[in-house]
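Late entry, evening session. Most of the bench is empty. Finally got around to the prediction I had been postponing all week. Sequence below, unchanged from the version circulated by S.P.
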Amino acid sequence: MQEHTDYVHIATYEPRSIDEVNRVVLLYSGGLDTSVMLKWIQEKYKAEVIALCLDIGQLADDLEKIRQKALDLGAVKSIVIDCKDEFADKYIARGIKANASYQGNYHLSTPIGRPLLAKKAVEIAFQEKADTIAHGCTGKGNDQVRLEGTAVTLNPDIKIIAPVREWGMGRDEEIAYAEKHNIPISHSAAKPYSHDDNMWGVTSEGGEIESPELIPPLRNILEITTHPEDAPNEPELVELEFVKGLPVSLNGEQMKLSDLIIKLNHIAGKHGVGIVHHLEDRVVGLKVRGLYEQPAAHPIIRAHKELEKFVCTRLENKFKEIVDQEWAYLCYGALWYEPLMKD
């Protein structure tokens, strides 16, 4: 098993030597990659690790178990921050007004969440006097660009390491490493999928999902949404009220945005709403299929689009479609702090 490679740190924000890394804030999800790297960073860099997990309305995670797991694996501190309201009000709200949809019906659950993760990592690193941030992104995905670009924008002096880019382990080697170091994991050959989870949706990749010639076995993949064939046969009517472009009540009950999204996830998810098989162009030049569960995002965006069509003129609607597409590409492309995003 090759646990180390000859990976060379090239970016200016990557440490040039092990000596530069003493205290690391690891964006920790409790999954295979970040659990393995929590141990690996201690072993490779001889550094203290602070595990950081944000509560942004994850629908399938037990955050207290995740917090304790990090401590069990040797983290000097394990922090969980409740960011549900900030995520909904400062990030998702902007996406709703922009009808967030990238190359079809992907409502950008992961891209909208990444700037907040990076922002909090920079803040905690400052508070905890950490010199380095670590994340679990691979070298072939978009999230490395989103997290690193945001972190360096907010603190140009922060160091960043991405262990998945450094080590020589594939999925099977990671599982073997976890077994060797007694790291509890849920991955298996039968379920080789990775998931990113927040209140705006669940992203799944790996296994059959990334092989376009195969049909992903939904019952083996879905995290929060009922398979459409297993959904209730009786319809359920949902009423959303919007004020100034944002939903403020669900079925006549006024509630804050984060609560509304989470509640609608349960209602719509029960009926199999919002499952999307999506082939997309990644920032790094790859074409990859993802599987998305968006039970709340899908009806909210659809309703908002229809309301806009109802109150805007023909030319306003045409122009808004152009602006929405540009917003989606900026958000997906790791440009949250691009001034054009707020113009």
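Two things to note before I forget:
The chain has a mean pLDDT of 94.
The chain has two domains: 18-180, 194-342.
Will write this up properly tomorrow.
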